[in-house]
Write a structure and sequence with these properties.
It is built from three helices and 40 strands. The chain is mostly beta strands. It is elongated. The chain starts with 5 loop residues before the first helix and ends with a strand.
């Protein structure tokens, strides 16, 4: 009888089982700072090149998310992570993680590994703030051709850096801290330099044109992570030959680029690019910089900036709603204000330093309470209430400060009789649409004597009703218009100035005989109050912010608008 060696048989079976057992599945990196490109929906690139050992991983966290490379994917030593991957040309990478992979993968560690989502939330992976800091539309920043301007941290409106044929402008971020803008547009050849660590918050769009350079200032010794740009709007646009050295976090936007060189980290909802060259900041790959709130250690403490800065010891601030854990838990519906009383039902106030709460004897809806005196004579008493004097009108803030129903240069306090001109509205039409209200208007502001200089003057348009309602207040900041022949023009489709309230075109032309003509149009104009048939007061004003109110000039007209036959529009005449 033949003897069977059971011990040897057991060993053979064990070896075969080990060989047949699947290897431990690899997983992509969960360090957000190791990804040079990160998106939620899709990444579509015509040609993608990573610069040597300064590259980073490329990832998608959406489902289904598509990574599509048309010609070439060159990312040696780095991973590609996406549920769906389609590569039309040569592909070089360390490991490819994907469930549906098509195209050349010979140099990406075949076979592809199973896709594992590296992060659950795109915003959290880049430290996107839960409450986005607000900008100030009334404080635009315009850097003129050939100008080099130093800017300190603060709240601003639209940022426009001019460049091109008349000279390239340069904006220098001179201070360490937060810069808040409504929209950012940098024209061809212009520059933005950061001399110290800075964080930009852009509420709207971020657009930079051909040949623009954005990043740390030469010789500053700063790396790319020292300049962080958070974008809340729907679009980040980088045109040809752009050099951007920063960390750009726009989890709700589409990022588009053409022949661009990007150094840093770039996070967006979707990314579309042609001929893209990317690098990862050299010190970021080994350091995790994920945060869940806005960094405040570099922000100067400022009472009244609209933020409760706990690092500065603040417990209340301007227009911050109270919460159960806040400064006024017993009255959660009351809103705070460093300027004075909180409302008719409260008995507490925020101190001027925002670090303490003080009691007030009487709460009113105004910061200045009326004075009441009582005098007694014999058996009768007389009570006299002295109302506080009205506030002075502030010219240029689009607010009726003195409560007389007139705003800015439509108020006689901002434009007196000597500087008033009688204008003639030749044509006006307002039409309601689903996307907003369209506005078209042509007028003759003055036949002679009304001078202006858009390089130093702010141009405003105020449309108000007979009942004191302000329907529209739009302003063009100084330096925004460009000279064309004998006139000045502004195309807001390119500038996207928030202060124009959706107006697309503004034109001013001075004829040889001194007559000044005005023309404006917009397809999505944001009216404060919808106009109705009846009388309208139209004021076009010119104000030099640096010269004081004595130089204010205005042209006023009253028109009566009527409904068209189909009742879809209002027109004059």
């Amino acid at each position: 009888m033949q003897t069977i060696n059971l011990t040897g048989l057991r060993r053979s079976v064990l070896v075969l089982a080990m060989l047949a057992a699947p290897a431990l599945a690899a997983t992509p990196s969960r360090d957000p700072s190791a990804y040079v490109l990160l998106a939620r929906q899709s990444i579509r690139v015509t040609r993608f090149d990573m610069q040597g050992d300064r590259g980073g991983h490329v990832g998608l966290i959406g489902s289904p998310g598509l990574l599509w490379v048309r010609n070439r994917l060159n990312a040696p030593g780095f991973d590609v992570v996406a549920p769906m991957v389609q590569i039309g040309g040569q592909a070089i990478c360390a490991t490819l993680y994907g469930d549906d992979v098509r195209g050349a993968t010979a140099s990406c560690g075949e076979p592809p590994q199973a896709y594992v989502r590296p992060f659950e939330d795109l915003a959290e992976s880049c430290g996107y703030p839960t409450e986005f800091p607000a900008c100030d539309p009334a404080a635009p920043v315009i850097v003129l051709h050939g100008e080099r301007r130093l800017l300190d941290p603060g709240r601003y409106g639209d940022l426009k850096v001019q460049g091109g044929g008349s000279g390239d402008g340069t904006l220098v971020l001179a201070g360490e801290g937060e810069y808040r803008f409504c929209n950012v547009q940098v024209s061809r050849g212009a520059q933005i330099e950061a001399e110290q660590a800075a964080t930009l918050y852009v509420e709207g769009t971020f657009e930079i044109s051909n040949g623009v350079v954005v990043g740390p200032a030469p010789g500053s010794g700063l790396e790319e992570q020292a300049l962080r740009i958070f974008v809340a709007g729907p679009r980040v646009r980088l045109t040809r030959r752009v050099s951007l050295r920063a960390h750009v976090f726009a989890p709700r936007a589409q990022l588009t680029a053409t022949s661009a060189t990007l150094v840093g980290r770039f996070v967006a909802d979707s990314i579309r690019a042609r001929r893209l060259t990317v690098e990862l900041s050299p010190t970021v790959a080994t350091t995790t910089t994920v945060t869940t709130t806005t960094t405040t250690s570099t922000v100067p403490c400022e009472c009244g900036d609209g933020r409760i800065n706990a690092d500065c010891g603040e417990i209340c601030d301007r227009d911050i709603p109270c919460s159960p854990g806040g400064a006024f838990p017993e009255q959660p519906s009351v809103e705070g204000s460093c300027a004075g009383a909180f409302g008719s039902a409260c008995s507490l106030d925020c101190a001027d330093d925002c670090r303490s709460i003080r009691s007030i004897a009487e709460c009113t809806t105004s910061t200045t309470a009326p004075t009441t005196t009582t005098s007694t004579t014999g058996g009768s008493s007389t009570t006299t209430t002295l109302l506080p004097p009205p506030a002075a009108e502030i010219c240029g803030n689009c607010v009726d400060d003195d409560g007389d129903g007139d705003v800015d240069l439509a108020d006689d306090d901002c434009c007196d009789g000597a500087n008033q001109f009688a204008s003639v509205v030749r044509r006006a039409k307002i039409r309601a649409r689903t996307s907003g209200r369209t506005l078209r208007m042509r007028s003759i502001l003055a036949n002679r004597g009304l001078g202006f200089d858009p390089r130093v003057d702010e141009v405003s348009l105020v449309i108000s009703g007979s009942q004191g309602d302000t329907h529209l207040c739009a302003t063009v900041p100084p330096g925004a218009m460009r000279k064309v022949g004998r006139g000045w023009r502004l195309n807001n489709k390119r500038l996207k100035l928030a202060s124009l309230q959706g107006i697309d075109v503004v034109r001013l032309k001075q004829r040889k005989n001194g007559q000044l003509r005005f023309r404006t149009a917009g397809k999505r104009v944001r009216f404060l109050v919808a106009p109705e048939p009846g009388d309208l007061d139209v004021t076009v004003g010119f104000r030099a912010p640096a010269a004081g109110g004595e130089t204010n000039r205005c042209a006023r007209a009253r028109i009566r608008i009527e409904s068209t036959r189909n009742r879809k529009a209002l027109r004059y005449p």
